[in-house]
Amino acid sequence: MDEQGVDGARTGVAVRPGVDAAVVALARGVEDAMIATDRVLGEFLGDRCAAAAAVSPAYGRLWDDLAAQVGGKRVRPRLTLAAYLGTGGTDPVGAAPVAAAQELLHTAMLAHDDLLDHDEVRRGRPNLAGLARTRTVRGGVTGRALEDQVLAAGLLGGDLALASAFALASTAPVDPALRLAVVDLLVAAVGTTVAGELLDMLAELSPPQSVDALLIAELKTAGYSCRIPLASGAVLAGAEPPVVAALERYGTALGIAFQLADDELGVFGDPAMTGKSVLSDLREGKRTELLRLAYAGADAVGRAVLDRNVGDPGLDEAGADAVRAVMVDTGALARVQAMAETSAERARDTARDAVPGPLSEYLVGVVDDLAGRGH
């Protein structure tokens, strides 16, 4: 998933016309619980920043920089709280640390993903590495020493966020058995995300047509962004295993649908609407299902266009337009749109058929928000 993209999604389930009153009440309950979650996050980060500053100014700055990275629409905490409240949870204050943990896990994954992608900007602002570069350059440091400092900031800051996610979850004021179950889910989230990240990195060494982009999306995107937050909330509420399993199936389908839609927006979207460049994925040569299908369907002339332009760091709009034409002519764009809608409908069907109401309808609205953007 383009994490920047998911944070641009709407969360307006409660304000849609015709929504059942019980669904509106659930949505409002989620937003009320988010107040407690934001308070937990703020207090946790404030305490850590103060304690770090007492150790050394440099350590305090790293924590300050990390705290500045926590932001966006808080999609993952909201999914956690919706699953918790929607499956019978009654203590949103107790659930808040678990929801906050999902956001810090996200922050950790962004920090490490940005390092692997050599990105130093996130949500239009310098990330951990970018902040470190600016600060270190001001000090007159250059060359390898500069790059080492930049790498250290991104790596160590991400490590702090990762450890903090577990710290928050392990101190939630809930039954110890439930707390342990949530920690186990976070462990699983890290494992699947690392697997997806590894496959994503190795994909750069493979021809686009041979990469299993859907598997990468399931491991790297759907797991920690959708499936684990939902399962964490439901487990915390004491939901029955079949309900937890349904939410996991829903989360997997939602995550894949989102990734397919987001990959399309990365090439065909309107940057003014999405905040996402339509050149960066092509310049990077990002191995998406859209690109795989374009290569699979292209003739020799079309493949030459793709070979010439995809992965070119200097790609301009004319080159991008040539690639888009191949993606349209081969049917790759239409197939990806159909696949995204199929996965989104699978998520909707799972929510309707196997998830209790009003959570069922709330989650159907989430599909429309996350997987229907820009279409």
What does this 3D model show about the protein?
The chain has 375 residues and is an all-alpha fold. 76% of the residues lie in helices and 1% in strands. It contains 17 helices and two strands. It has a two-stranded antiparallel ribbon. Helix 4 packs across helix 9. The chain is globular. It starts with a helix and ends with a helix. The N terminus is likely disordered.
Q: Give the CA-CA distance, first to last residue.
A: 17 Å
Oligomer: single chain
Strand percentage lies at under 5%
The major sheet is characterized as: 2 strands, antiparallel
Query: If strands are numbered along the chain, what order do they take across the biggest sheet?
Result: 1-2
H-E order: HHHHHEEHHHHHHHHHHHH
Rg (C-alpha, Å): 21 Å
Helix content: over 70%
Inertia-based shape: globular
Structural class: mainly alpha
